[in-house]
Each structure stands twice: as C-alpha cells, then as structure tokens.
Backbone:
C-alpha cells in the first residue's frame, strides 16, 4: 500500500505545489519532489521533474495538474527524469530539458529562456556542477497577477527550483566526471544572489532563504576542501579517492560512500586545476 504521504498534492507557495514520489532512499531522501507550477486560477500546470517511472505517481501528477502545459527537467538523472516519457504519453505535453537526449516533443532549455504557461513565468538559469546539465528555475514573483510573494531576492525571484543543486537537507554529490566542483561553486554563488527566495528542492523540504542555503553549502564545500588537503598531506599526494573518503567521510553512512567518492574525485580535480 502506498504511504499516504505519497501521491498527495501539497501546496507550498501561491504558485507551487508538490507531489512526493514513493522512491525514498539514501540519495533521494524522502523521495523525489515533483513540482506543479500555476497561477491560482489556472486550469493547467507546468510539471517540473516527473520523477521515477512509477505509474501510480505519474497518474497522481496528471490528475493533480488538470492539463499539463509543459514538462521541465532540472537535470537528467533517473530519479528526476525517468517518468517524463510516460507523463508525455499520458498528457501530450512536451518535455523540455538542457540535454537533447531528454527532450520529447518540445524545444530544449538554455540559459535565459523564459517559459510562460499556466499563468506563470519561469526563468531558466544554468547551474551546472552537480551534473553538467543541471538547471534552476526562477518563479517570477509578479506572474501570479497579485504582486507575488514578498521578500523576493536580488534576482527578482519569489522562489527557485534547484533540483539537486540545493537539497532540503544535507548536501548533494558532485557527480564526477560529469559533475564539476568549480562549476558547482559558481552555481552556488549565483543562487546566493537570490537572497530570501524560497528554495523548492528536488528532495527533502523546501527552504525559506536561497541566500542562506547557498552560503551554508559554500561553507561546507570549503570545509571539505580543507579536509581533503589535510588528508593529502597525511596520506601523500597520490592517495586514492577511496582512502580519502575513509578519512574525510568516516562519519558518513558507508552506504553512500560511493557517492562521496565521486565528490572526492571532483575535489581532487579541482585542486589539481588550481595547483
């Protein structure tokens, strides 16, 4: 039986609601957040990240959306994108993504695009680092026709959908070699500019302030880099990524050490580039 927390539409902001997919795990936290974006009086919705190819979840998303105007992907990792084809077939809505491999019956998405549908406007920011194709979507605070949410950040967004770039709890993996730490740090600095914008995350709860969340992530990455430098000093410059994981991530569940090793490889590449 599906847990009642799943497949239920939960309003989060005046323009955004979430349906939680039933795919919890060490990397997905409580599950993938599938976001529905629309103005309060709209009969259609924009769907962001359909999540896994789970017929129950996708039927719930389609039912909650009414008419799906378009499907957007923050990035192509399977826990965000695998359900896109089935939702496209259910609704006829095009799937838009940065990576051409994930586009279906629609245009792509690139930096600076504005997607206008369901009474809202979504601005596209390229925020690579977690993956090379990671995007964030900024919700225009004025697109609800009532001035939007108060306290929008410097970038003019009342809310920002970050995929896996910023999570609702913990930190994310830099999925080397596709992920790049230098790009990731630049993306976090960009998101920091949004100040008080609400963060609508790919996994876990929403966060109240994009600037504070990005600052926390930047501080964490700086600390990890210092720890990797110290490990290299102790273990030698040719120390393996696995040996560094065992030293630096000793307090982390070993079930996710494989992901920590990807981040360490990204950190080592970053340090080599700046040596």
Residues:
């Amino acid at each position: 039986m599906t847990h009642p927390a799943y497949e239920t539409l939960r309003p989060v902001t005046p323009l955004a609601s979430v349906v939680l997919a039933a795919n919890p795990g060490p990397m997905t936290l409580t599950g993938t957040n599938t976001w529905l974006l629309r103005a309060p009086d709209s009969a259609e919705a924009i769907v962001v990240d359909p999540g896994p190819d789970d017929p129950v979840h996708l039927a719930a998303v389609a039912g909650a959306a009414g008419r799906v105007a378009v499907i957007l992907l923050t990035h192509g990792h399977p826990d965000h994108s695998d359900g896109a084809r089935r939702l496209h077939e259910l609704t006829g809505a095009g799937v838009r993504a940065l990576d051409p491999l994930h586009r279906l019956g629609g245009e792509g998405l690139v930096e600076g695009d504005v997607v206008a549908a369901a009474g809202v406007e979504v601005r596209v920011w390229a925020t690579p680092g977690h993956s090379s194709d990671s995007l964030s979507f900024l919700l225009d605070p004025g697109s609800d026709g009532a001035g939007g949410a108060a306290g929008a950040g410097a970038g003019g967004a009342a809310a920002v959908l970050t995929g896996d770039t910023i999570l609702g709890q913990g930190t994310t993996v830099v999925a080397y070699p596709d992920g790049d730490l230098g790009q990731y740090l630049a993306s976090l600095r960009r998101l920091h500019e949004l100040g008080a914008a609400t963060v609508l995350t790919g996994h876990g709860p929403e966060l109240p302030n994009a600037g504070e969340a990005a600052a926390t992530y930047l501080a964490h990455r700086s600390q990890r880099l210092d720890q990797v430098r110290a490990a290299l000093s102790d273990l030698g410059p040719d120390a393996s990524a696995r040996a560094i994981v065992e030293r630096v991530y000793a307090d982390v569940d070993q079930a996710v050490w494989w992901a920590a090793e990807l981040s360490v490889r990204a950190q080592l590449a970053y340090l080599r580039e700046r040596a």
Q: What stands out?
A: The mean pLDDT is 93. The chain has seven helices and eleven strands. The first strand starts at residue 9 and ends at 13. Residues 210-235 form the longest helix (26 residues).
